[in-house]
Amino acid sequence: MIRRGFQAAVRLGQHRALFGGPQVLPRLNLTSAFGSSTDSLVSRFCPEKTDLKDYALPNASWCPDMLDLYQEFLEKTKTDGWIKLPSFKSNRDHIQGLKLPSGLAVASDKSDWRIFTRCIQVEGQGYEYVIFFHPSEKKSICLFQPGPYLEGAPGLIPVGSLAVLNVHVEKIEDQKLYMSCIAQSRDQQTVYAKCSGIFLQLQLEEESPQ
Amino acid sequence: MIRRGFQAAVRLGQHRALFGGPQVLPRLNLTSAFGSSTDSLVSRFCPEKTDLKDYALPNASWCPDMLDLYQEFLEKTKTDGWIKLPSFKSNRDHIQGLKLPSGLAVASDKSDWRIFTRCIQVEGQGYEYVIFFHPSEKKSICLFQPGPYLEGAPGLIPVGSLAVLNVHVEKIEDQKLYMSCIAQSRDQQTVYAKCSGIFLQLQLEEESPQ
Q1: Which terminus, N or C, of chain B has the lesser number of Cβ atoms within 10 Å?
Q2: How many angstroms separate the CA of residue B196 from the nearest CA in chain A?
Q3: What are phi and psi of B136, to 5 degrees?
Q4: 3 state DSSP class of A76
């Protein structure tokens, strides 16, 4: 589940603040039932056909810079080894069909679960983002446009404009992934933030058919 | 602006992840125009009468544990030196009438700005929290009940139940505040997370009358 690992890196600090570190995220072990090829991982986690809404698609709120870079990376998916990751409303959609390790069970209630980065439904008001992933280079790029509902300390957030987040896997040690992220303006003249963190990968298996 | 410092500690990691560290938050310098007494700070930042909606009040979504502890701390505000902090929709409401240092100017557009912890409007779906502050002991308590729109990695967040966040000022060095936070279950048997961070206080002055 390489994709989820990267996606998580982008929001690293928030989780670390409230819910502990290092990160324990369900991540597909390469030696698991899905095999080790990138292709099989990609087809598992980036389904080409699905009824689920993909929130990582352009909408009317995206600023020209964001649209522009989106198109640029979309072109790169054709030839340069980049993959555009889909973004569904809930993690439950992303991990559908996978059995979680005990202790990480997903509640079975009928709540309208949403991954917190998709919690604000009005376009442009909250988290607008799309992630492109480059498996062989172990890096990803997140185009992120924060909206006015993400207010923090005055002046720190480039609300309504683009932040480009570069995420790299620094090293892998057994189950541990060391990742870093730098958030910058498109022209790289402004650094909004840097962060790094350790993620633990857990082995996931396909659920047995009922 | 002691209150804001504490409030910020609660969401420390999120800011650190995307928008740099240490934290640069406008915080009232005790030697500023407002004087140094706790009373004057409290009356400035915890107005007893205001037209602004206070989101840190019980609603139908609060679980019994949250309501119970809320009442317990509310009682303590009468005799034990605790103060219940109000929570308005936007930081702009909290810093009304204060001049920000240059570089931290607040955009003057008419957007519907919301502090990110008040971005989800449906009761119980997002961040339900209230903060009590004890000035002389330099600590605060945040009662936090995350909702299903704050989904992260499966199993890590006690959605719908209470997390108690204890925030302490570890030390103060000139402008620097060293703060730490531990998030636990009410019975303290489960530690959800620990974090610490450094906040910088900036001197704020009252805006000159127009």
Answers
A1: C
A2: 8
A3: -70, -25
A4: helix
The whole-model pTM stands at: 0.80
Q: Which residues from B are below 8 Å from A183, CB to CB?
A: 18-19
Using an 8 Å CB-CB cutoff, list chain B residues near A90.
151
**pLDDT tens-place string over residues B193-206:** 999 999 988 777 77
Residues of chain B with pLDDT under 50: 1-35
Length reported for chain A: 210
Region of A2 (left: φ > 0; alpha: ψ -120 to 50; beta: rest) is: alpha
**Secondary structure of residue B153 in the 3-state scheme:** coil
User: Contact at 8 Å (CB) between B83 and B76?
Assistant: no
Reduced DSSP (H G I as helix, E B as strand, rest coil) percent helix, strand, coil of chain A, to 5 = 25, 30, 45
Per-residue pLDDT of A71-129, as tens digits, reads 999 999 999 999 999 999 998 888 887 877 766 666 666 778 899 999 999 999 999 99
What DSSP line would sit under A1-34, residue for residue?
Answer: -HHHHHHHHHTHHHHHHHH-SSEEEE---TTSTT
Q: How far is CA B72 from CA B65, B77, B163, in A?
A: 10, 9, 15
Are A18 and B183 in contact (CB < 8 Å)?
yes
Those residues whose C-beta lies under 8 Å from the C-beta of residue B99, and which sit 6 or more positions away, are B204, B205, B206, B207, B208
Tally Cβ neighbours within 10 Å of residue A176. 13
Ordered strands of the B163-173 beta sheet: B23-26, B191-202, B176-184, B163-173, B139-146, B127-134, B83-84
The phi-psi region of residue B101 (left if phi > 0; otherwise alpha if psi is between -120 and 50; otherwise beta) is: beta
Note the ipTM here: 0.79
Query: Could you give the CA distance from residue B85 to residue B2 in angstroms, rounded to a whole number?
Result: 11
**Cβ pair A22, A200 in contact under 8 A:** yes
3-state secondary structure (DSSP) of residue B172: strand
Q: Which two tokens stand for residue B181?
A: 């936070």
